[in-house]
Amino acid sequence: MSSRAPAVGDPTPGLSNASAAVAIAAGLKRHGVEVTFGQSLPSAIQLANPLFGIRQIGYRTENAGGVMADGYARISRKVAVVTAQNGPAATLLVPPLAEAFKSSVPVVAIVQEVNRDTYDKNAFQEIDHFALFSGCAKWVRRVDRTSRTDDYVDMAFTAAATGRPGPAVLLCPADYLNEAVETVERRQAELGWYPLDRVSPDPAQIARAADLLAGAKAPLVFAGGGVHLSGATEALAALQERACLPVATTNMGKGSVDERHPLSLGVAANAMGRHGSTRHMLPMIEEADVVLLIGTRTNQNGTDSWRLYPRNATFIHIDIDGQEIGRNYEALRLVGDARLAIEALTAALEARDMGRRRATRSAVEARIAAGKAAFAEDAAALLHSDRAPIRPERVMREIDGLMTPETIVVADASYSSLWVTNYLVARRAGQRFLTPRGLAGLGWGLPMALGAKVAAPEAPVICVSGDGGFGHCWAELETARRMKLPIVLIVLNNGVLGYQKDAETVKFSGYTDACHFETVDHAAIARDCGCHGVRVERPEELRPALEAALSRDVLTLIDVVTDPEARPPITWYEGHF
């Protein structure tokens, strides 16, 4: 086969010459797409993609495939593409697209539909896809005219990547995909990156924000996931250093700053109870008089049910989505791209008298250092515990000891996310800790880690999942083997849906029968799928197992038997356990 990518009018083996499927594949190539996540259908597109050098990552289930695309987009900073068949396959895309929608992650979903002449005739697996995707996508359209193929592909990528990123769904009737494309002028735009359109806030608003921060007695920054989405971590690090501003992050904002920096508090969200890493920072938060929010939706978990942020503070809010500003906290509005806003704000502050910021820096640093030292003392017994079943805090300590600044850590939902955000330390501004916190669906850790590995094949990828979450996605172990994606998967095996059991106990003084599982040998499942599996029952076995796993060229599952009574320092558990 020639190395030249075929033009739309070229004959294509196995497909109609100049078909719409070939035109779509050409459009994907133009937008920088290198991989798609999909099973067979739409077969016409999957067969055309290799002609343009586009690799297919074949998932086992659509819900996992959608999460793989999400993880890929977060790490690659490119618009991800997932494909699915009509009907039941399409319905399985709803949960991952909803996560991407809430987390502002750009994904284009290409969904096959029934033939056009069978619309509304109860064709096999026909369903109203517009209604199906209306609540979990920014944009849902059907392309059924070959002359408009390029137009709709470009609209889908634009919708996904411009403004607040999110999912776009392009519906393609099966017969349309094999129809000949009319001769049309080819588009040239490359739209597969995000943010697609960077816009700056009003300079007058930047000036007001700079005045507030320069004159504040106790300013504080909260960085959310939007900092990562904007690629603004270097800009935030510069603002932190030059303006002498202390920075905390939300769960999804973890890694926005180097957490070893003397002005970094760590993650301050919904897990600031006993043994929480930022518990001793609460007085600093309560005393803040000017709070700068960057790229955060101020959601329930990120604000500890809207109780964390100081009530009497003046708020400044940077966000690409103007509707998020003022939703929960009235604020000075800086609507625009986070990176451009931070850079403008840094320049404005440097033009002002920063004497107060510099004069208080050493005292602020000392206070943060004291808070971190108090946490280390509080949590020492758990982090160094030699008990069996193993404490999850000890597992995190061993992971943290082997992490590098390039390590990507992925956590499943529920307790796994909170173990990671509390007990692992970001070693550079921009280090990625992926957590499905948009909707926090169980079972998304493993496929998200696989997507991250596709995006960054040279980076170590470590996934932490509970046994409850892992039970949702066992089948994707085979995907990891088949697609040669060597990650380290740590299953915290405690035989219980921990969050469910503990939350029910707090609310109802009892819990349902669904909370407990029978014993499962997850390592054996991994081995039966052709991966490596090892069971760890003693703390001293952790480090050797992790070191060996990081050196292998195949997925390694470490099945860690953990304490079922262990729980993260969730604030609202205070006084109950």
CATH homologous superfamily classification of the largest domain:
Thiamin diphosphate (ThDP)-binding fold, Pyr/PP domains
Number of strands: 18
CATH architecture of the largest domain: 3-Layer(aba) Sandwich
Give the overall form: globular
- Sketch the major β-sheet: 6 strands, parallel
Low-confidence parts, pLDDT < 50 over ≥5 residues? 1-9, 11-16
Distance linking N and C termini: 66 Å
> What's the total helix number?
22
- List the domain count as a whole number: 3
**What's the Cα radius of gyration?**
24 Å
Beta-strand percentage?
Answer: 5-15%
> CATH class of the largest domain, please?
Alpha Beta
User: Structural class, please?
Assistant: alpha/beta
Helical proportion? 25-40%
Determine the CATH topology of the largest domain: Rossmann fold
Give the quaternary arrangement of the chains.
Answer: single chain
Q: Which sequence of strands runs across the widest sheet?
A: 9-8-7-10-11-12
